[in-house]
Amino acid sequence: MRRSLKDLLLNEDQRNQMRKAGRFNAQLLDFLRPHVKAGMTTEAIDKLCHDYTRDHGHIPAPLNYHGFPKSCCTSVNEVICHGIPDSYRLKDGDIVNVDITSIVDGWFGDQSETFLIGEVSDEARKVTQCAFDSLYKAIHAISPGSMITEIGHAIVDEANQYGFGVVREYVGHGLGTEFHQEPSIPHYPDPRFNRVSLEPGICFTIEPMINIGRYQGIVDPLDNWTVRTIDGKLSAQFEHTLLMTENGPEILTTTEHGPKFGHQF
Ligand code: MF3
Ligand code: CO
Ligand code: CO
Questions:
Q1: 164-209: per-residue pLDDT in tens?
Q2: In a designed cystine with 124, which of 44, 46, 120, 212 is the match (CB 3.0 to 4.6 A)?
């Protein structure tokens, strides 16, 4: 029997645990941000992520998750998600999504940001802007009791203004004491979620992946992780962990640094 979403609603103590995990994860991203630049290898970013997390007594959730070999995901250019940090050196014109997840006292924080490396093409900037704005449109579209599909409507509306594709195969997810739990959070209006509502106490991610071209992806058969756009065109993503409160959604993975609502890339 499917666990009811009711069992996933957090009390005030549990909410504070999630706030703490989200804040730590956001501080980790603040620490990484200045290092995500031309000349850095993605595995150097991974090492910084791993060591910072460990030095603070926490656990990088991706490491060994279903066999994932590194502590964060670095998805460059046409990589939609789950890129494995390696010896690739970031260069001017690249876009790279860094997706980090920490376990703090058993509770998870999960977020990602797409970075523009040096001067990038108009297209690269646009797809990054679209992914960022669509995340905030989705956050602003929901309130206590909203249906999960309102998230997808907001994201697809934004992507449609550019003619960009919204990835369907990978979705946001509930988050708490597990990495991926219910509910699923599709970034398009999947009718199966028409009547699933977001009640105060639920924690979840929104993490739209936006493609310049077709929305379909293909998993690299050599590593079984890296997901690339089927047409080789660029893809961008942003992710936050959210807590639905009685007063609306609270972004848990944020500090006073980093791009905020309205940011122009
Ligand atoms: N952080 C990703 C997410 O947002 C999941 C990465 S799973 C990994 O859900 F194994 F690739 F790390
Ligand atoms: Co996530
Ligand atoms: Co993530």
A1: 999 999 999 999 999 999 999 999 999 999 989 999 999 999 999 9
A2: 120
